[in-house]
Amino acid sequence: MTLYVQLDCSILRYKYLKLISNNKSMGEGENTSNFTPPDEWKYPSPKSVVEVLYKNICEEQ
């Protein structure tokens, strides 16, 4: 599975752009699903793994 995410570091929000599933691991094989979710921003829950991960990504930029 490959998940494309747009991250807005100015206010720590994110949105999913595209989700692609394959029939083998590590993005190998044929695409089994190609999904584009609704265009909406989300905010990570406080002290969640997602919040910590995205804060670290923003600090590295």
Please describe what this structure looks like.
- This protein is of the alpha+beta class and 61 residues long.
- It has one domain.
- It is 20% helix and 36% strand.
- Strands 1-2-3 form a three-stranded antiparallel beta sheet, with no helix packed on it.
- A hairpin with an 8-residue loop joins β2 and β3 (31-35).
- The model has no long low-confidence stretch (mean pLDDT 92).
Choose one word for the global shape. elongated
Order of helices and strands: EEEH
Quaternary state reads single chain
Q: How many whole angstroms does the radius of gyration measure?
A: 14 Å
Concise account of the structure shown:
The chain is α+β, with helices and mostly antiparallel strands.
